[in-house]
Amino acid sequence: MNRIYLDHAATSPVHPQVINKLIETMEHTYGNPSSIHATGREARKQLDVARERLAKSIGAKDQDIIVTSGGTEADNLAIFGTAFARKKEGSHIITSQIEHHAVLTACEKLEKDGYEVTYLPVNEQGRVSVEAVKQALRDDTILVTIMLGNNEVGTIQPIQEIGELLKEHKATFHTDAVQAYGLLQISVDELQVDLLSVSSHKINGPKGIGYLYQRKGTKLSPQFWGGQQERKRRAGTENVPGILAFAEAVSIAQQTIEEKRDLYSQFKKEMVSIWEQFEIDFKINGEIQFTLPHIVNVSFAGTDVESLLVNLDMAGISVSSGSACTAGSINPSHVLVAMYGENASELRNSIRFSFGYGVTVEEVKEAATLTANVVKRLVK
Q: pLDDT per residue over 66-122, tens digit each?
């Protein structure tokens, strides 16, 4: 059986060019960038070039980039780093109910430590209201953290509008761009964010590497202590192979943004067309035209998510019911709860399909057909 992998929002296969870069670097660029000898200087030189490529992808400067072990660490550094650096200025934080758990659990930890967190609701499309952010702002608000694109339903948030709103407020503005990076053109100046998190493994790079963008002058308390790496903001010997491979993945992703958008739009249309032909009862969660190009979250009426996942897996289709970080949990998706309420049927019958490198139109058509057959069988 040839498996069809449609869970790229959870993680993506490493691009062959990235694998080659990773191997090449591990073989030949093994020096410690902090060493002053020639081997170390060569590693530093390549590291600096890679950092420039990472920064350029979001319209930033190389000194604004703090390399991390991935999106979770980047989110944690943004949230805890801001909270601790600004604790004398206030203790109020604003976020949304649909954030990734790397943000939500960090905020919950801060609540236990005496900070106050406002969790903004979303509408049925999974979108935060700019007016709600405005109403929640207080004099003691030190951080607003709202994701750019949701990882479960793909809804794109009004980050630029929120950034405009916060120009007149002292709060630090952070966005988790992990799911949107490499699929949307991102400019930190246009978005007007102070902090932005991304991860390598979502864009066909290696796992265990990511970065946090920090605008110059934005207060941030380090969370790792040791050496003076990352301009004293994140201690630890740099993962040179991972960083160079990540930069390679970023270059590929940036060059193919428009191509991917058009291709994934076609994928969505093909799936919807096939499901309509089979006359199954389904609904797209979120407005398909206002979501990330690679994600389509679908509610299939009369089905159960666990049975759907098992049957689709047996049919050779790898998909998920939402966030991979809650895999194995029987709890409903917190994103769908925020969108529809605790008793909504969508909580029990929704599946996320997500596209990426290597997926073909033929595979998408086959997956849609197999899904329709599974749904028809389960609904009977």
A: 999 999 999 999 999 999 999 999 999 999 999 999 999 999 999 999 999 999 999
Residue 33 CB neighbours (<10 A): 19
Distances (CA, A) of 69 to 15, 200, 253: 19, 9, 20
Contact present, 232 and 220 (Cβ < 8 Å): no
Helix (H, G, I), strand (E, B) or coil at 5: strand
Maximal C-alpha separation, the chain: 71
Q: Report d(CA 94, CA 119) in Å as an integer.
A: 6
Q: Indicate if the pLDDT at residue 322 is higher than 70.
A: no
Q: What is the pLDDT of residues 292-303, one digit of tens each?
A: 999 999 999 999
Question: Domains (ranges, CATH) in the chain?
Answer: 4-12+256-379 (3.90.1150.10), 16-255 (3.40.640.10)
**Contact at 8 Å (CB) between 215 and 188?**
yes
The secondary structure of residue 114, as a DSSP letter, is T
Residues in the chain: 380
Which of 215, 202, 206 lies closest to 78, judged by CA? 215
CA distances from 174 to 20, 142, 182, 240, 250 (A): 33, 11, 18, 26, 21
pLDDT digits (tens, 9 = 90+) for 116-158: 999 999 999 999 999 999 999 999 999 999 999 999 999 999 9
As a whole number, the mean pLDDT across the chain is 95
Q: What percent helix, strand, coil does the chain show, rounded to 5?
A: 45, 15, 40
Alpha helices, DSSP H only, in 293-333?
305-314
Catalytic (active-site) positions: 325
pLDDT number for residue 290: 85
Q: Which residues pair with 92 in a beta bridge?
A: 116, 141
**Rounded to whole angstroms, how far apart are CA atoms 152 and 102?**
14
